[in-house]
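Input record (Table S2, row 339):
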Amino acid sequence: MNTKNILITGGAGFIGSNFINYILSSRDDWNVINIDKLTYAGNLENLKGSEKKKNYSFVKGDITNNELIDYVFKKFSIRYVINFAAESHVDRSILGSEVFYRTNVIGTNVLLEASRRYGIEKFVQISTDEVYGSLGADGLFTEQTPLSPNSPYSSSKAAADMAALSFYHTYGVPVVVTRCSNNYGPLQFPEKLIPLMIINSLNNKKLPVYGDGLNVRDWIYVTDHNKAVELVFENGKTGEVYNIGASREMKNIDIVKLILSKLDKSFNLIEYVKDRPGHDRRYAIDSSKIQNELGWKPEYEFESAIEKTIDWYLNNKNWWERIINGSYKDYYDQQYGKG
Ligand code: NAD
Ligand code: TYD
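Output record (nicotinamide-adenine-dinucleotide complex):
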């Protein structure tokens, strides 16, 4: 069997840890090397099932560190990279943008330079539909939609995409870019809409809905995203971009009400708060390219997958209580009160 040495960055975060757990439970031809800085969003507990596997190694480190990245490429004979590592929360990028550009842009550049030096075989850049900006009431983002990011987060991701594609065109680094819509599922850090609303409901805290609550996001279960990434890794054409989405548009307020209903809580917990500055109105993805060219399609229905997600948070109170009582406590108390 030909084992592939694959550097996965940001593998202790929400999507990266789900990806590693999925890959290591379904195949043994990948030798996974996970590098993660373990920021507030990184949690090794997310990898409980994976960390003892012999085809898994962990390096605590920062992707912006040139010397470390060079050492890791050499030590583990890295032939492939999947770059999940990022600062990922729009609200935090509004509070302070510097670390977003450092990790998301400079970090990606460091990985690309190492990939060029070592002549690797594939580099998958995990990006987001937010690079396309905001839609009006109609239309969908296609891979041809011009980039028009509006937040420091999305602009840093757009810059990283451009850097990655420029390394393909200039140096022939075999880059593929994926742009996925909003994910939900187990292990998502409780600052993002769905886990935050589940946890606040369970704690009988207010559910802060920005603006009029009518902004639309296009939701995908994290395993569907990860299966698409696996397919792009295997068969995606280098130099190409693939949109990933499950065609499940929802208004924020409808998600919040759905969560409250499922948990048998009162809508009185909803609190309309000041809108996010520069808040994108609507995201919606056309994923026909990956469906037609690579044969991917989403497998999870929103109705059952959101229930599965709520159940996960109900059954894993220790996981999120440790987070909201630990590293996240100050931010959480400041945003949602101590009560
Ligand atoms: P996350 O914030 O949960 O996890 C990010 C991980 O990256 C954490 O483990 C963190 O410790 C690590 N990290 C941060 N800075 C680092 C650095 N300098 N060096 C090494 N590691 C570092 O994010 P997520 O939601 O899992 O998102 C993963 C990727 O998917 C990101 O690139 C994000 O832009 C993209 N994405 C996310 C969504 C979504 O809905 N969450 C949708 C589309 C795309
Ligand atoms: P979020 O989960 O932060 O993802 P993104 O901004 O990357 O799409 O937010 C999803 C939507 O929910 C977005 O329109 C902002 C909104 N939102 C709220 O209304 N209240 C909240 O407390 C949060 C975190 C988000």
